[in-house]
């Protein structure tokens, strides 16, 4: 218990939280933040705000300045007999002043998922909003207060701006990577005719 209180106080000090904060509530919240997906923990709410462009949304989500660029050419600098690949990529930045790239700098690329994969996911969603309707993704948290535990819906920080489902699946979510054990376990609960018993732990 003493270690948990110390962790909580250290976090409060690190993030400049004053002494008026209920440390018991802050400590309890460490155990109530969701680490897995379920319909009871996440929800969509419609939003009428004006949608921003993809780069603006990604900049907010990743807290970095992101600018658009078109690929002009890709050339492998290694010989055809080599097992290695060193690519020379030429980008058209349209003389964007924010794109101050120099040789040796690291460059992050936010590629979009294939449209047909995104559409396939959207076609198989149930009880989902219009894929092109701006929404806000909210997560449920349980907070300890003087009257017991209460539920509070908060904006999910991964999607801090209004976004459409189509853009979320296109640019913000890895839909081609290996699913996590939590996702596999959830999918297993949705099987209508299971043929084997399996646990992803």
UniProtKB/TrEMBL annotation:
Belongs to the NOS family. Its EC number is 1.14.13.39. It comes from Exaiptasia diaphana (Tropical sea anemone). Gene3D superfamilies: NADPH-cytochrome p450 Reductase, Chain A, domain 3. Its cofactor is heme b; FAD; FMN. PANTHER family: NITRIC OXIDE SYNTHASE, NITRIC OXIDE SYNTHASE OXYGENASE. InterPro entries: CysJ-like_FAD-binding, NADPH_Cyt_P450_Rdtase_alpha, NOS, Riboflavin_synthase-like_b-brl. Keywords: Calmodulin-binding, FAD, Flavoprotein, FMN, Heme, Iron, Metal-binding, NADP, Oxidoreductase. It comes from the Eukaryota. SUPFAM superfamilies: Riboflavin synthase domain-like. Residues 62-194 form the Sulfite reductase [NADPH] flavoprotein alpha-component-like FAD-binding domain. GO terms for molecular function: calmodulin binding; metal ion binding; nitric-oxide synthase activity. This is nitric-oxide synthase (NADPH).
């Amino acid at each position: 218990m003493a270690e948990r209180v110390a962790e909580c106080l250290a976090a409060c000090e690190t993030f400049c939280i004053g002494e008026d904060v209920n440390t018991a509530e802050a400590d309890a919240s460490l155990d109530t933040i969701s680490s897995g997906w379920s319909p009871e923990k996440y929800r969509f709410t419609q939003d009428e705000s004006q949608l921003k462009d993809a780069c603006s949304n990604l900049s907010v989500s990743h807290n970095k300045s992101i600018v658009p660029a078109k690929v002009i050419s890709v050339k492998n600098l290694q010989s055809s007999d080599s097992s290695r690949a060193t690519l020379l990529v030429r980008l058209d930045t349209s003389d964007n002043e924010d794109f101050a790239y120099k040789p040796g700098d690291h460059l992050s690329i936010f590629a979009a998922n294939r449209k047909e994969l995104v559409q396939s996911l959207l076609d198989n969603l149930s009880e989902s909003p219009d894929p092109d309707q701006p929404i806000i993704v909210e997560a449920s948290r349980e907070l300890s207060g003087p009257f017991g535990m209460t539920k509070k819906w908060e904006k999910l920080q991964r999607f801090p701006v209004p976004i459409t489902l189509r853009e979320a699946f296109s640019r913000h979510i890895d839909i081609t990577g290996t699913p996590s054990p939590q996702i596999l376990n959830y999918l297993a609960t949705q099987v209508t005719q299971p043929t084997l018993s399996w646990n992803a732990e």
